[in-house]
Design brief:
Shape: elongated
CATH topology of the largest domain: Heat Shock Protein 90
Number of strands: 13
Number of helices: 14
Strand content: 15-25%
CATH architecture of the largest domain: 2-Layer Sandwich
CATH superfamily of the largest domain: Histidine kinase-like ATPase, C-terminal domain
Helix content: 55-70%
Radius of gyration: 40 Å
Largest sheet: 5 strands, antiparallel
Distance between the termini: 80 Å
Number of domains: 4
Length: 430
């Protein structure tokens, strides 16, 4: 732009200089005619090169870029360099985009890019297959219009994508895990994972555990019955009595393990329980206190702080199982005459059941794993106390089925605190 200004300035300066020269040599009319003629020629030259520029802009190419003359030579030279650089950048961008598309297609999961309005911008073939997306028709359309699922709509509306959600596509009969994440300016990246095969395997495992446990229960009941008969016989000597007592102990342990496996299998099944029944917590805690009293036999100081006005919707059997497991654990791992606190209150719109003990505590490295099946912090102590390694796993699954969570705080040799947090939508006041 500056070159054009200087070129025009020097041309006008030259015109004025020539006007005075021509006026002195010839007459004024001739000088004016000469100046006008050169000015028109100057304009026509610029119009010509502007026309060439417009032609090139309509069909840009390095091959047909004009050379130009004078100032236009510089202009076209700069344009050549700029266009060449743009073509290079475009080639690099195209290459990067092709690599991205290839990578997206190579991934086993479906990938969808959406804008802030959840309109589909692009997707890979796996996502198209999972959610029945037609690129020609469905791009730039809200994903909720293409795949109508309340779970997906609610998940995207929350805009809190720390956790995933599961949906079902009845058309393809697919169980799909959805996970979203923000990227760029208000754009979202949605990943879709086909869980159908994994869920089938998991359901087979659950069915196996359930059926296997049921099959074991009958013969174990028979064995336990015979052992009890032997224990009642007065003719049994000291050594035999000791052996029979050990058999009885192991039979009871086996029965407890089978019972816990059945409970866990039932909790993991979405269709076995009504998880929206009204639970009157006053009645539940009355039953809980009675059972705890039988288990503890006044060996510990158990303090209750219960707000009977707070009730929840859920499965009575499952919630009770979670509560009794936490209390049993506290009794098991707290020394005799130790203190155990039990509370039920509403805090920050959530209903919280908390069990705090002054027992042996849990080493920090074990805290994150204690809810895993059969995970034991202390193998010997757990077996001696009759633990199966499934109690906290049952608690965790119960809370997941009730959209709640379990929080653990513990300090070695100082005690532990377990919180079961039920969300506000499950609370009702009596």
């Amino acid at each position: 732009m500056q070159d054009i200004r200087w070129s025009t300035f020097w041309f006008l300066a030259l015109e004025i200089f020539l006007y005075f020269i021509m006026s002195s040599i010839f007459n004024q009319k001739f000088a004016i005619f000469f100046i006008l003629a050169t000015l028109i020629l100057f304009i026509l030259i610029h119009i010509f090169w502007i026309h060439k520029l417009i032609q090139w802009v309509d069909s840009p190419s390095l091959k047909n870029l004009p050379n130009g003359t004078g100032i236009w030579q510089n202009i076209f030279a700069k344009l050549y360099r700029t266009y060449r650089q743009q073509k290079k950048s475009q080639t690099q961008l195209t290459t990067t985009l092709d690599q991205f598309i290839q990578a997206a297609e190579a991934i086993n999961d479906g990938i969808i890019g959406v804008n802030e309005e959840n309109e589909i911008l692009w997707s890979n073939k796996k996502a198209q297959k999972m959610l029945n997306i037609n690129p020609k028709k469905d791009y730039n359309q809200p994903i909720n219009y293409i795949f109508r699922n309340s779970g997906l709509s609610n998940y995207l509306a929350k805009e809190n994508y720390e956790e995933s959600t599961n949906i079902y596509n009845p058309t393809n009969k697919l169980d799909i895990e959805i996970k979203a994440a923000f990227f760029g300016e208000n754009h979202k990246l949605i990943t879709c994972r086909d869980l159908t095969s994994l869920n089938k395997i998991e359901n087979l495992r659950k069915d196996f555990v359930s059926n296997f446990s049921h099959e074991l229960k009958t013969p174990l009941t028979v064995i336990s019955g015979f052992i009890e008969t032997l224990e009642d016989r007065k003719t049994i000597n000291g050594q035999s009595k000791k052996i029979i007592s050990l058999m009885s102990e192991q039979a009871h342990r086996m029965k407890k393990l089978i019972d816990d496996l059945l409970i866990l299998s039932n909790v993991e099944s979405d269709y076995l329980h009504n998880r929206s029944e009204k639970i009157i917590m006053k009645d539940m805690f009355k039953k809980l206190k009675s059972e705890v009293s039988l288990i503890d036999q006044k060996q510990h100081k158990i303090i209750y702080s219960i707000n009977n006005e707070i009730n929840i919707y859920g499965s009575k059997s499952e919630v009770y199982s979670a509560f009794i497991n936490l209390l049993t654990n506290a009794i098991r791992y707290t020394d005799k005459e130790g203190e155990i606190s039990v509370s039920w209150n509403k805090i920050n719109n959530d209903a919280i059941f908390q069990v705090t003990d002054k027992g042996i505590g849990i080493p920090e490295k074990h805290v994150n794993r204690i809810t895993e099946r059969f995970y034991r912090v202390d193998e010997d102590r757990s077996r001696e106390s009759g633990g199966t390694g499934l109690g906290l796993s049952i608690v965790k699954n119960v809370m997941q089925q009730h959209q709640g969570e379990i929080r653990v705080a513990s300090e070695l040799n100082s005690g532990s605190s377990f919180k079961l947090i039920f969300p506000t939508e499950r609370i009702f006041l009596k």
